[in-house]
Amino acid sequence: MTIEIGYDDKGSGPALVLAHGHPFDRSMWRPQLDHFSAHGWRVIAPDLRGYGETTVVPGKTPLETFARDLAGLLHRLDVGEFVLGGLSMGGQIVMECHRLFPERIRALVLADTSPRAETAEGKRNRTDMAERLLREGLRPYADEVLTKMVAPANVAAMPDVAEHVHRMMRSTAPEGAAAALRGRAERPDYVPTLTAVRVPALVVVGDQDEYTPVAEAEFLRSLIPGAELAVIEGAAHMPNLERPAEFNSALANFLAKLA
């Protein structure tokens, strides 16, 4: 089916494409969109299927569907090669894009994400959560997980950031979020494909991330030949929003080497 995709496309130069996490939208990349579009990059940040301003499709959305949506958008925008980054679910979409069309990707940025296939328990949990979100909406979930997405100290010290993250979560359509959860429950194991990566890669993680701890980021870095690791201190699962200056500095240093 044809879907309408909401996206930001800002700046000029080589393309930097950013995939958001669950249950967020493209506004999570605002600090990166503004910074890198002002420093020689064309930054493209789409809302994924079922999120933000992009069409909600109930049922199940596999990572392959997200990846093909992204490829279709970039084709329409006449983008050939690009640097591709993503956070959490967005990072898994990045890995799926590399599996499907590695020849188009100049470099990978994998933030607060895991390459492993879902466990049996994880499949049950995601399926159960999908049903819960359809019953309750996103507000109770957003209340519950805010201090895991954003470090508790940052919720207190950065109320604007905390409210932004909470607003993204509670505004997400339950049908879109549930479809993504069902799709992620069946995600493949990216460990074998990552050992074949032949482009530069940067792994980023918040040092207080409970969902994908530093040890998981170190494992991810170990899989990819020559990959770099940046640990962002004082951040949980959203280091690009909790510590935007540090995140942007790590990404800028990495991108500078591509020239």
TrEMBL record:
<protein>
    <submittedName>
        <fullName>Hydrolase</fullName>
    </submittedName>
</protein>
<dbReference type="InterPro" id="IPR029058">
    <property type="entry name" value="AB_hydrolase_fold"/>
</dbReference>
<dbReference type="InterPro" id="IPR000639">
    <property type="entry name" value="Epox_hydrolase-like"/>
</dbReference>
<feature type="domain" description="AB hydrolase-1">
    <location>
        <begin position="14"/>
        <end position="244"/>
    </location>
</feature>
<dbReference type="GO" id="GO:0016020">
    <property type="term" value="C:membrane"/>
</dbReference>
<dbReference type="InterPro" id="IPR050266">
    <property type="entry name" value="AB_hydrolase_sf"/>
</dbReference>
<keyword id="KW-0378">Hydrolase</keyword>
<dbReference type="Pfam" id="PF00561">
    <property type="entry name" value="Abhydrolase_1"/>
</dbReference>
<dbReference type="InterPro" id="IPR000073">
    <property type="entry name" value="AB_hydrolase_1"/>
</dbReference>
<dbReference type="GO" id="GO:0016787">
    <property type="term" value="F:hydrolase activity"/>
</dbReference>
